[in-house]
Amino acid sequence: MxxxxxxxxALRQVCYPGFSRDIVSFGLVKEISCEAGLTTxxxxxxxxxxxxxxxxxxxxxxxxxxxPGVGSVKVVIDVKDAPAAGGHGGEQVKSAMPGVKRIIAVxxxxxxxxxSTVSVNLAVAxxxxxxxxxxxxxDLYGPSVAHMFGIHARPLANERNQIIPLQAHGIQLMSMxxxxxxxxPVIVRGPMAHRYTQQFLLQVAWEDLDYLLLDLxxxxxxxxxxxxxxxxxxxxxxxxxxxxVALIDARKAVAMFEKVNVPILGLIENMAxxxxxxxxxxxxxxxxxxxxxxxxxxxxLLGRIPLDVLTRERGDAGAPVALLDPAANxxxxxxxAVAARIRAAVPTA
Length: 349
Ligand code: ADP
Prior knowledge:
Layout (H helix, E strand, L loop, with lengths): L3 H8 L17 E7 L2 E9 L4 H14 L7 E9 L19 E9 L6 H14 L4 E5 L7 H4 L17 E3 L2 E5 L14 H13 L6 E7 L6 H9 L4 E6 L3 H16 L4 E12 L5 E2 L6 H9 L3 E7 L1 H8 L13 H16 L4
Parallel strand pairs: 2-3, 4-8, 4-9, 5-7, 5-8, 9-10, 10-12
Antiparallel strand pairs: 1-2, 6-7, 10-11
Bound molecules: adenosine-5'-diphosphate (ADP).
């Protein structure tokens, strides 16, 4: 007869379908019992995709059936319905997060495409529409939102041991960057990263937010899965640059969100062109990649943001370009237009 510990160990070979993370470290394995001649494994999974439990069932059998001494194997999968995603057609669905009406993920297929720049400026532009806005930097490995808001303070906890977000430009902010020393390396892996992220999402005392923007790490890995499994995400925005390599990864990000039933609100094409003082536009990373991609994927193109020196400078200085008057600055205007589209696509009232 096998011990439940050795069964649990063996189940580490089974990954959540489409991800590199195993079902044990995700905490999906709820019960293991080993009796003479019968091994029973109970797994709980939250999804609305019937293929997910089916795949886990098959993979568990593939691993367990060949173990010596297990006897017959019974895999029981308890499928919990994932929370319905709102945002499409203006359905009124409240997020499960206290104090937050709508949660929007800002994602990118790869790093360096300007996802944090977009998150920060979009947050500022949403505030200008009169919304109450929070921004949570979920990137444990490269938190940059704190820097882009020029914040170096550390947040305090309230009497319920929740972290009180910091404030900048009228936005409630939470970032891994607030808990780290400048330049200290972050060595958080696997289950630890999973727990940190959950803690981030669930232990912050957000106060009366219309929109919480989640700045996700680049790519389609485990943290992204943790986020969408922890909170009800109303929609995702994918940031990309126009060149093919970025678009390929953006496509993967779109596919990932579709797999977990998070509606894609649309693409934002960043660094779309550079305009010189004489007004001539240079398409440094190719022309119209985001436009074509949005058509191909049949998702809205929410906006096109040029490559712009002031945008970079103001990002570095902690004073996002979207703070400028949109009548006087084209990039600010572009971000304000994106904010208006988001408000229309994800209404809060
Ligand atoms: P990501 O979050 O995707 O890794 P960042 O937002 O950190 O990307 O941007 C990477 C760098 O590019 C930063 O230095 C940022 O200031 C700069 N950047 C992003 N978008 C623009 C833009 N539209 N124009 C000029 N610089 C930009």
